[in-house]
Every structure is written in structure tokens, then in C-alpha cells.
Amino acid sequence: MTVEADPGANGSHNNQIAVARIVKAFTYLHMTDRWGPIPYTQALKGSENYTPAYDSQESIYLDLFKELKEAVAQVDNGAGPGGDILLGGDMDAWKRFANTQRMVMALRLSKVNPSLGATEFADAVAAGVITSNDENILYNFLAGDPNNFNPWYNNYSISLRNDFAISNTMVDYMKPLNDPRLPVYGEVLPSGEVVGLEYGSDDAKNIPNAYSRIGDFFRGAGSPALVFSYSQVLFSMAEAAHLGWIPGGDVAAADYYTEAIQASWEYYGVYDAAAFATYIAQPEVAFVAGNAVEKIQNQKWIHLYLNGYESWAEWRRTGYPELSPAADYQSSEEAIPRRQAYGTNEGLVNKANYDAAVATLLGGADNLYTRLWWDKP
After folding, report:
1. Which residues touch 356 (CB under 8 Å, ≥6 apart)?
2. What contacts 108, CB < 8 A, 6 or more positions away?
3. Would you tell me which of 106, 174, 213, 266 could form a disulfide with 187, CB atoms 3.0–4.6 Å apart?
4. For residue range 330-361, what is the model confidence (pLDDT) as tens digits?
5. Domains plus CATH for the chain?
6. Model pTM?
């Protein structure tokens, strides 16, 4: 008996390809924002090309914008892909994922190509981004599957390691503000306090009961990880309004900013109307048009806790929050890294293309301190 596979059993062909394109674009965004120029157009060819040429970060960004728009347009009315562990085959959610990523990417261009950034940002918003905490993009770990436990749970509860704690930089910023997210972010010690650990220290530290580990909210076996969130969208809208990319100016920017902080409080389960009113009235928090970007980025940084690469990218782009290198950091630059250097093998197995990329595309030495294309003073 001949049995033919059902071509639609795992979702429509168009929807499978659309999701693959979106995930690929997400992956490449993280890669280029870490290293800058990387192999892109000639990459992933397998045995056809083991030594792909590098592409400039600018050209990669332009193609990622195109890929995300085309992927959204490719979505049809058929079923979503089977086995979708992120969004369960919900194609409307995948469209929001793509458009929200495009919004985030557009803001990266605020100093290097604001005209294109404004166009892409407004178009992404019109196409449909995340509009509530119910639409947050979450990676859901599986409490019943040891192969898919939350990594913080693996670290603390399975491996019994205690070498991670909330940093004193975050604690020292949040504590004076009486930010109710702090005891969610960090473990409350028997003293009743959340105590941050100095990051980058050369000294061995005994963490339990001396410094606060990552909070329980984040380290259950099935605790989810945020990929994109409503609060992140609102902070982006606030900056875009301030920049004049979307209507409303600083009046709208202030509203988006306040709504972003509220959405963050609500997501972390700490919202109380009276406490919130007191919080946002503090001079350190209250929106001021003259330093709007600093205000927005400081609060976005708080919200993006444990989303280190996005926080790092936004710090590089804006300079906020104002941070200092770790006290024991050993470097002639005395600066926080602005990119990751290429792996040693790149200069060995793909030397000609590596050398060409460093000479003509990177804009500086292959070290931790050369600025990326969008990273301008």
C-alpha cells in the first residue's frame, strides 16, 4: 500500500517558510549586533562554500528589514507550522514578532540613518506590533522535561551552583527608588534586603545568604524568558515620539513612557496604583523632555533585566544608563566592550575574507572596542 504524506499536515508551506525567515532574521540580528560584519549572503551554503565573504552590518540590516516584511506578507490563511514551541503555530503572533523586531531594529538607526529608521519604525507600527502583556513573546521552558528546564533552574537547583547573583549596579539604582520590582529581580535574604554582587571581581565570593541570587520569578523549572514585550514596545514608542518619528511629540512620549513602566510593573505582578503614582513622581523617574532619551533608556534597562544582549545594544546606541567598567577589569582601554571580537578560528580557516572584513568593513581593529556601524558617539 502506498501512503502519501499530507503536505499540509505540518502547516501550510508558506507559513512554514515565513516562520523560518523570521527566526533566521532574529538570529542574524543578534549575530550582527554582537560582531558587526559577518558572513551573510554567502553563509549557510554548506559544502558549496566553506569560506563565505563577510557582509557589512548596514547591508545586513537592509536585508533583514526586507526579509521581515516579505515574511509577514508571505503568511497565508492556512495552518501554522507544526511543532512550533515558541508561538504554537499562531501566525498573527508571528507577524507581531516580525514587526516588533523591525521596530527594535529601526531605533538602532537613530544616529546613523534616522530617515530610514523613522520610515521602518512607522511602517512596523502600522503593520501590527505587540499591544498588551497578553501578547508578550515568551520562550516557555518545560518544567516536566529535564532537557528543557529553565537554565537558571538548572544552575541553582540541578547543578547546585551559586555563582550567579544580581549585580550591585542594578540594586544600587533600583533601591533608592523603592522600585517594587527589585525583590522580584533578586532573592530577598534573611536580613530582608536584596544585596547586589559587584560584577567582574577578581575575588571569590560566597554568595548564599550574603548576596542575592536571581529571583524566584525567573528560576522555576518552567519559568519563561521574555523575547519581546509590550513594555519594550511602549519604551520604543516613547523614544520614537520624542524623535518625531511618530505623531504626538513629547506629550505622547511622556504617556508612552508612563504606560511602559506600568506595563512592566503589571508583568512582574507588583502594580499598585498609589505606589505607582508615587514612583513616577520622583525626580529620577519623572519624564523630562530635555533628557527624554536618558529617562526612557534608564527605565528600559530596568525592564530588560536578564535580556543582556538587548540591554547592551541599547546602552551602546544611547550611552544610557551611565555605566562604568568593573573595578577589576583589566584593559588598556579602561572601557566597557562595544562588540565581541571574532573567534580565533576566523582568521585561520577563512583568512582572506576575515582580513578583508577587518580592513574594509569593520572600521577599526578586531577587538572589543571598535564601534559597530550603528554605534555612534
Report:
1. 53, 54
2. 33, 61, 117, 313, 317, 374
3. 213
4. 777 779 999 999 999 999 999 999 999 999 99
5. 10-129+339-377 (1.25.40.390), 131-140+228-323 (1.20.120.840), 146-218 (no CATH)
6. 0.95
